[in-house]
Amino acid sequence: MLPAVGLLALLMPACDHASAPPTTTESEPAPALLDVTQDERVDAERVSAMRLVVSDASAPAVATSRLDPPATVAPSQPALDIDVEFEPELEPEDEPLPSDREPLELRTAKQHLTVRIAPDHRAPIRARIASGEAFEVFERVQGRGCSVGGWADVGNGGFVCLSRTRPATQAPRMMPVARQGVLPFYFARNRLDQPARRWKSMRSYLRGDQPTMVYELGRDYAFTSRRREGGQIVLTDKRGRIMLERDLDRMRPSRFEGRDLVAEPVPEGEQLAWTVDWPRTAIHAAADPEAKSIATLDYHLEIFVRPEPLRTASGTWFELTGGGFVRARDIRRLQPVEPLADDEVTADELWIDVDLDQQVLTVVRGQTPIFTTLISSGLKGPTPRGVFRINKKEAFGSMTSSPGASEAYAVEAVPYVQYFHEGIALHSAYWHDRFGFKISHGCVNLSPRDAAHVYSLTGPHASKGWMEVFEDEGDLGTRVRVHEGREVVADRRGPVVYVEG
Q1: Nearest-angstrom CA–CA distance, 258 and 152
Q2: Is 18 in contact with 377 (CB distance < 8 Å)?
Q3: Residue 472 · residue 496 · CB < 8 Å
Q4: Is the previous residue joined to 339 through a cis bond, with omega within 30 degrees of 0?
Q5: Is residue 17 within 8 Å of residue 445, measured between CB atoms?
Q6: What is the CA radius of gyration of the chain?
Q7: Least confident of 329-343, 353-367, 458-472
Q8: Half-sphere exposure of 472 (CA within 13 A, CB side)
Q9: Distances in Å between the alpha carbon of 233 and those of 3, 31, 238, 333, 475?
Q10: Do residues 373 and 258 make contact, with C-beta atoms less than 8 angstroms apart?
Q11: Residue 320 has pLDDT above 50, yes or no
Q12: pLDDT of 270 strictly over 90
């Protein structure tokens, strides 16, 4: 017996894509060959503000090795150092919903496969498996509408018709498969002043064929490889088409990442904060803008302040626990996370709190915060307030502006997407480094590394090989509470809406 189903329109289009500067791009090709199999790294050691040797205020203002924007970037518009790559290895996370069964066999999808909640082609959709990806089979089962191959229980509440599969030659992988650090693709976009050239294949490019001229303002391209051919660095997309890196602006991901509050708890009586003034935040000897600046702190640096604000005629200030004062507007703070307003939360339930006032996201288990970071919420469109549930997760998915929108954009493959209200999602943003500021079209932007981490923790849970997954009664999506400061928000969750198709 199939459960009663509702129709959920697959409206996962215009969410957000910030096109205003600063973007993390580069216009000149890197001199060294970087293949898809080779990591691009820089030292990304996280530094505590309490251990940082800050520069004296009287010293010349110089760009740090951590952050060095283009000369045209205004102080209020921070951007990344575009002279280095930063794609660190992602530490492996615990696999979601580990099965207590050993797989019977491994299969590979010969095309995109639909995973259903029952062995019946009429059953609602549970997930989708990417073409070419391996997956686990735990049992062969009887079903309807799959005469060739038969149905298979693939675990995690899903069933697949095996007619368009073959025995696997490789182990299943969690999606997305990272090609550069935590990102599954190399990203670039059209320049404002000129079209880009595109060849239909590498053979066509090397043969010297006439390319197609592409001019798509606001489009971000996703490429599966980056290598040197014919004296140029060429980018290859998933359809095998070729573009030259020198014709495009290459996107560089933010270095920012949040804090593991279990491994690095906040000291008793102190409050965690991040500096957000670009390029550096001044520390004053007193809570007065005219007071001597005794040191400066780099952008997006973790610091600790005393929780009590100091309100003066010049504004609100906070005192650093190591001495000195900073303006409230120059930092973002992890406020105490209020419990959810019900008695349903179990001690081990994971949920997410999004504070729009401080632009801070916190992952909570029961009533204990376990991870926190900066986000960028809606500026060009509001981020809805309320208590929601993640209803769909995509390893990566396209996002486009609505027809007739004043600001057109199209992003081919946004990684780590978690929809919680219509077309609004938590997702990675590789195109800016303004975490701590409202900038999006309504979605909640996270840095790529933070987005990958949060994605690995939340439900609904994807199995190996699953490109996307919808929530199910047996695998409800993680709760997301979005609020401004201490306001009380409505519970906007509803019953599970199953997807037909």
Answers
A1: 40
A2: no
A3: yes
A4: no
A5: no
A6: 24
A7: 329-343
A8: 23
A9: 53, 9, 17, 42, 44
A10: yes
A11: yes
A12: yes
The helix or strand, by DSSP H or E, that contains position 457, with its residue range, turns out to be helix 448-457
End-to-end distance of the chain based on CA atoms, in angstroms? 18
Task: Kindly state the tokens that stand for 228.
Answer: 């040197």
Half-sphere exposure of 1 (CA within 13 A, CB side): 2
Average pLDDT, the chain: 82
Phi, psi angle pair for 307, to nearest 5°:
-60, -25
Token pair of 311, please?
């309100």
| Number of Cβ atoms within 10 Å of the Cβ of 265 | 12
**Distance separating alpha carbons of residues 103 and 99, to the nearest angstrom:** 9
Which residues does 224 contact at the CB level (< 8 Å), separation at least 6? 36, 179, 185, 186, 236, 237, 238
Q: Which carries the bigger pLDDT value, residue 230 or residue 377? A: 377
Lowest-pLDDT range, 49-58, 124-133, 143-152, 459-468? 49-58
pLDDT in tens, 166-222: 999 999 999 999 987 899 999 999 888 789 999 999 999 999 999 999 987 778 899
Q: Any idea which residue has 């573009």 for tokens?
A: 243
Cα separation, 360 vs 352, whole angstroms? 11
pLDDT of residue 15: 65
Strand 392-400 and strand 410-421: the pairing is: antiparallel
